[in-house]
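Example record used in the benchmark description.
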Amino acid sequence: MPRPSSMRRLDRKILEQVHALIDGGHTVDEIHTYLQGMGAFVSRSAVGRYKKTAEDMAQEIRQTRLLADTVVRSLENAPEEKTTRLNIELLEGAILMLQQNVGDKFDAKVADMLSRATKNLVQAKSMDAALTLRLREEGRKQAMEEVSQRIKAMGSAKDLKELTDEELERRIAELVQDGNGQ
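Model output (structure tokens):
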């Protein structure tokens, strides 16, 4: 097993600064000079490899975010079961990518962690959907009760029969206006 990169053995605060330099677009030579000034003596090639790896990872993260953004926008109004199925398929894809990237050294713990995360996500979405349905039903019942009370406030059926068409229209209009918060 190869030993860890000399860059990865640096103090965390120095590594954070190195990442800031990489993000700022500094060259390998500039980062190497910075590290020498901090008393961290690592080879220029180690800095170059580390910078390349960090940039590659950043690019993969940007691509993943772009893909996720695209998927989220395309599924904005999709039924819940489609988004759940998509999450499962994304997990399968991630597991396959892990297997390809690490070959025989596939880490079952990582796959298990991804599976659990997906399971938790699906459960959370199911709970959210159930809550949304319950709130809609409660709102519908409340609206029906409110309409029923307003109709009763208009008067009895006998009273309403005695109204002219214009008077009935006015009362219904008042009922609708009261229902719109006016």
